[in-house]
Queue: 2 jobs
Job 1
Amino acid sequence: MPEELERLVNASLFVIRAHMSDNGAIIASSDYSLVKIYGDGYFYCWPRDASYVAHALDLAGYGDLAVRVYRFLASLPNQGGALYHKYNSDGTLASSWHPWYMNGREILPIQEDETAMAVWAIATHFSIYRDFDNMVQLYKSFVRPAMKFMLSYTEDGLPRPSFDLWEERYGIHLHTVATVYGALFVGSELAEAMGDRGLAVDAKDAAKQIKEKVRSRMIFGNRLVRRLDENGNVDPVVDSSLYASFFFGLFNPRDPIVINTMNLVEERLRIGGGIVRYENDPYQKRKSYPNPWIITTLWLSEYKSMLGDKEAARAYLQWVASHGTASGMLPEQVDPESGEPVSVVPLVWSHAELIIALRTLLG
């Protein structure tokens, strides 16, 4: 491992632990600067971020700390197994901008990928550590109800609409679909190990149907689309979160559909060596181009590693390393021209994704 990456990994582990409460809560960032602008910060626990962080801890060999995060996620208030938008670090429900009513009808104000991510991370942890003692209670209290929710929250073989991981749009999102697929597939193996054969079979059948429906409904030309809107219309905007199509096992990274999709992501979203979230992303935009993000750039590194292109994977990792602070803190995003940090520093998810990307590179 190059010296600068080894140093950054150590800094990342420190950042993760420093943002983790004894009860297992992981806040997204301790940076206070946004409070002066928006009146609030990132001092909350998003189940998605926490799940990525716990998975990174698992990969780094800190399974005991990851279990602490999983126990916190399992203790959170939920809606029939579905986790809400975000939580305070004491486990109480936090503020949200997702509505309960939209277009004159009641909706469930969730990002379903957050529930799926938690199940996927817990089930993946079990596949690594096989720690039955920790898993029995987690499975009974959270994983099983969450899997049953995902099985029920479907329509025509796909997850029903919810909000996307960027917290901006409502619909059926490829990232959400892929995480639900991964959660049901890996969760079915956990269910089997727990002796819950009926749920295991149902989950695997549902995962198979999801894959079939994605092929029939979420392909535009020769590549995947990021979303179907409420009317079933295709959203053709190229989005970096399409990486989920291979990361969570929905498709093989060498599938022509994935290759076409990720080639387009790299072609249209690469700016200054990093990857922006999606085409014409306006969030925190300060220049004529959108800001590259750390996590999205690392997703490209993971993709290159899975293809066996180690040189390209390292190049993206080196770009990330070169855009950290002198103390090794990674921001959420960077200025496309100056490379200076934009938004919060550090973002814990950025540090977790670095560990995941490096582990993917090293195999």
Job 2
Amino acid sequence: MARSPEESLKATLGRVAPGTPLRDGLERILRGRTGALIVLGTDRTVESICSGGFEIGIEFSPTRLRELAKMDGAIVCDKDAGNILRAAVQLMPDSSIETQESGTRHRTAERVAIQTGVPVISVSQSMQIIALYVNGLRHVLEGSEKVLARANQALATLERYSVRLDQVTSSLSALEIEAMVTVRDVAVTLQRQEMVRRIAEEIAQYVLELGEDGRLLSLQLEELTMGGPGSDVIIRDYAGADASPDEIDAAVQALLELGPTELIDLGKIAGIIGFAGGLDVLDAGVQPRGYRLLSGLKSVPKAVADRLVDHFGGLQNLMAATIEDLMTVDGIGDQRARTVREGLSRMAEASLLDRFL
């Protein structure tokens, strides 16, 4: 399957992250105040736009890249930057390809990246920047200090949002047990989950850019994002018994695609779940089917949870079921029935205590 431009950019960022030989070579070029044009990969399309130069075929090293950059022309490496294949190459991409760049080196880099689908790096001698071109996307590499400053700010935001998400999730659990859930409660939980996901995704991009300088940040991100069901479980809980897996997936995708302004609109989120009517429907009562709370019982497989929900039809019936009632479900023996019964009871007690203490 072909990668999207965003996925290709992320993969390339990993190759040029601080601590990698390629990033070392690029920074040597910057410090030496020379420019460079580097193509990361070769195929027939790349070869067709290359003219002249020298066949090198040597193992990559930062110092070799720096020395070869002193010559006019581009440098062609393999896709992993493990070997330098050619140097002093003239690149002749299709001049009809539109570009927003003004400098000759940057215009060439963008056109080559678009025409070949191969990542191209342009090091500007005058502006002292490293620009990465991948499938029509442009990304300027910055120093670790600047990236870390933005990452720490995003991490502080994530911590606040995670606390708020924990609060609304606990509130939703208590309301589910009391059979007092409204559409608003569900929409707010999904909204907060998506906000946390987006901030975490932004921080993950910083971790990728930072390379070995982002190890501590990576650990903090992992700690803040671990645990809890995804939005697909919540949507499945409230989308109705007749909702197909494809419809659930479509709803999850629609939530992911909401713009920043749309994400604030709880009526829009309610519509994605299946509650049409905008803001007027937010105070309507709803009943969960039980998927979300059952997903919190790690010893209960998903297939068993599905059978329990299908058999009892809703969370309230499931909460009221005795061990004997649970054992009537196919595949539920005495031990598993006790696990489910005791697990749901513990979750009910914890949620109610969190709500009223």
